[in-house]
Amino acid sequence: MAFDVPPKRLRSLDEDTPAWLEPEDDDIVAEIKSTILSKIVLVAGKDVKHADIHDWYIAAALTLRDRIVYQWLQSDRATQNHGAKRAYYLSLEFLIGRLLTDALTNMSLMKPFRMAIEDLGLDFDELRNVEPDAALGNGGLGRLAACFMESMASLAIPARGYGIRYEHGLFRQIISNGWQEEFPEQWLLSGNPWEFERRDVVFDIQYSGRLDHAEEDDSEGRTLWIPDETIQAIAYDTPIVGWRGHHVNALRLWSARAVDPMRLDTFNSGDHLGAMSEMARAQAISKFLYPSDETPAGRELRLRQEYFFVSASLQDILNRHLHTDGDIRSLPSHAAIQLNDTHPSLAVPELIRLLMDRYHIGWNDALDITTKTISYTNHTLLPEALETWPVELFERMLPRHLDIIYRINAEHLAAAEKHFGADARSQASVSLIDETGGRRVRMGHLAFVGSHRINGVSAMHSELMRETVFADLNSLYPDRITNKTNGITFRRWLHQCNPELTSLLQDACGAAVLDEPERLRMLERLSDDPAFQQRFQTVKRTNKVALAQIIARQFGIVVDPSALFDVQIKRIHEYKRQLLNAIETIALYQAILDDPQGNWTPRVKIFAGKAAASYRQAKLIIKLINDIGNVINNDPRIRDLLKVVFIPNYNVSAAEVIVPASDLSEQISTAGMEASGTGNMKLALNGAITIGTFDGANIEIAEHVGEENIHIFGMRADEVVQRRSMGLDATDIITSSPKLARVIEAIERGAFSPDDASRFIPIAHALRFLDHYLVSADFDDYYRAQRAVDTKWASPEWTHSSILNVARMAWFSSDRTIREYAEDIWGIPVI
């Protein structure tokens, strides 16, 4: 029967050996089975013999959720009783992936649940694959947010994440004839057993309208915002379970609805579609992640989305604070609000608005409370990714916020004038309003000025922030920029996705390595031990065989697990330089054809990633990769020396299979353009050796694993700047590189596009004359580094370096990152 009392606890979680690796009490397995069966009847409303695999998945998830809820309520009570300061993490993306295995691992319930499911005659792996990937993010930004939420729960930091409950997350990618096509990702189609709809948590979100300025005798005057439109935000909570199940936090996602779902008078007049137009306009806000911003309507929708979730979240935070403390002025002592990139930057004017207009706090105090409460994480130096919005759009959609931004900017520029003097360039540089090419609000600048701390996400990135995009702001506010190098949760990216390696690590380092990743250092003494190397290689081969089987089954490409699996898995973008990898593939193909009997290292080039729907050049690069694969994979002269695979619809679940099977990790962004990266950390933790530029967290990985255990190539960031200053024409480089010239010539004559010889002319043209991302400039050194990889692969040194990569990655845990946030930015003690 279903639980109506706290379920039976497992053995003590303080013992060295984790419960999920120990034989389980038969009573616990029986209780789980009984509860699952009751869920089939009482929730699915079916006789057990008629239940399908989806019914069983829902029943299993709800059975686990029952156990989580008790710990969740206990965590929340403990936080309230201690009056603990809370962290609030605002992010437009949360790439949380599947939750069943994640929660089972953290609750130490994997083994009894697996036993219960299999006792019921079901395949556990088939059941867990029923769960859709919650693709509420685009890539690293959203996955980082998910790792941080898990680490906050694991460290028992009272926290809540805030985002949007997109009905359709990032699009489902289909590769049709080599081209990317986008389709809606319907992750909510069959319901979501993990979430709780909070019907009592509803906030009004307002747009447009006009301002009235009222003079008052006893104040500085009040500005009244009289909006034209109101929609509602409804909360949905998902529990995020920390390691060992000791603490559970909530991820609160907002869904949009109209105040009135239908205008009955319009419907009765015969205009049935028009009667629901307001509902459709409201629901569009939480319909899609990242609607295309190529049209004015798309840009307006994006701004509406950002304000929607920021306003709902801040209203919720203030309500909670007043309920527990009662004094709005004490907010900075009880709440720390972290902005994950520029998307939540509207939190600055919105918090000021709420403090002034709703709680009647004066301007100076409202600004002071805001800056002491908010902090901002910058994730990019790319100008196109540092959001700006037209002033005209702000004036029409959020007039009160533009009014506040103008006032912040006036005081800010007055301070800048005192600091810089009458330097027009510096004044223009730090202004919240960009006056060049049409007046636009700079959201990165707004977040910077409205925060007490601003952090980059790797040492190099933070230093470049000080020297480049925020140089003048850093001069004006010299103590605000700090660094917090990203990290990953080892629970998902080692324990869960690579159980065979995890078991080996426990044998070598002790079971406590699951709680103390620093113990991975104990592997160093085994890195040259032949017996351990053999066991390590066996684990890697097992994972490669599993991936090879998926590739054969789904794509009809047979790959040899003995080959080097060379992996580049990330969002498709020109600065991430999948193109560099692709043209090196062509050069290698040509070299093998020139010397078919040469001592070549067999390779499988594996690509995965999505291009933004409107990013034409990135989508053309995907087509090129697939066309290269079509030629190489069908050329009998190559035998099994080289294969190319593009895995479509890359997501968290795909990464959990690819990462453990990877030998070589491609981290080849143009130096100075990758803020950090976290895929590099996941791959290295699982024993892949990195080939990369001196960029982002690659630098810190090299420092920790040793430069001899990583392959660094290419220009450094200062050399990139110098090369670009000379122009983007790469003719001189191509002339001096016969290999590169031959590759570009093959692309230009249609060697990989016989059906359309001119298809890839735009790529060839960019390689020759518009080498902004230094693909041509770095090609020769990249090719050299790849041949050094071949040499190492053929020697025992490869396994030695692979083991040392695992051994020296403990510092890159997101637990370390979150400790630094808590102690240095949020002022929250971590026990």
TrEMBL record:
<keyword id="KW-0119">Carbohydrate metabolism</keyword>
<keyword id="KW-0663">Pyridoxal phosphate</keyword>
<dbReference type="InterPro" id="IPR011833">
    <property type="entry name" value="Glycg_phsphrylas"/>
</dbReference>
<keyword id="KW-0963">Cytoplasm</keyword>
<feature type="modified residue" description="N6-(pyridoxal phosphate)lysine">
    <location>
        <position position="682"/>
    </location>
</feature>
<keyword id="KW-0808">Transferase</keyword>
<dbReference type="InterPro" id="IPR000811">
    <property type="entry name" value="Glyco_trans_35"/>
</dbReference>
<protein>
    <recommendedName>
        <fullName>Alpha-1,4 glucan phosphorylase</fullName>
        <ecNumber>2.4.1.1</ecNumber>
    </recommendedName>
</protein>
<dbReference type="GO" id="GO:0005737">
    <property type="term" value="C:cytoplasm"/>
</dbReference>
<dbReference type="GO" id="GO:0008184">
    <property type="term" value="F:glycogen phosphorylase activity"/>
</dbReference>
<dbReference type="Pfam" id="PF00343">
    <property type="entry name" value="Phosphorylase"/>
</dbReference>
<dbReference type="GO" id="GO:0030170">
    <property type="term" value="F:pyridoxal phosphate binding"/>
</dbReference>
<comment type="similarity">
    <text>Belongs to the glycogen phosphorylase family.</text>
</comment>
<comment type="function">
    <text>Phosphorylase is an important allosteric enzyme in carbohydrate metabolism. Enzymes from different sources differ in their regulatory mechanisms and in their natural substrates. However, all known phosphorylases share catalytic and structural properties.</text>
</comment>
<comment type="function">
    <text>Allosteric enzyme that catalyzes the rate-limiting step in glycogen catabolism, the phosphorolytic cleavage of glycogen to produce glucose-1-phosphate, and plays a central role in maintaining cellular and organismal glucose homeostasis.</text>
</comment>
<dbReference type="InterPro" id="IPR035090">
    <property type="entry name" value="Pyridoxal_P_attach_site"/>
</dbReference>
<keyword id="KW-0021">Allosteric enzyme</keyword>
<dbReference type="GO" id="GO:0005980">
    <property type="term" value="P:glycogen catabolic process"/>
</dbReference>
<keyword id="KW-0328">Glycosyltransferase</keyword>
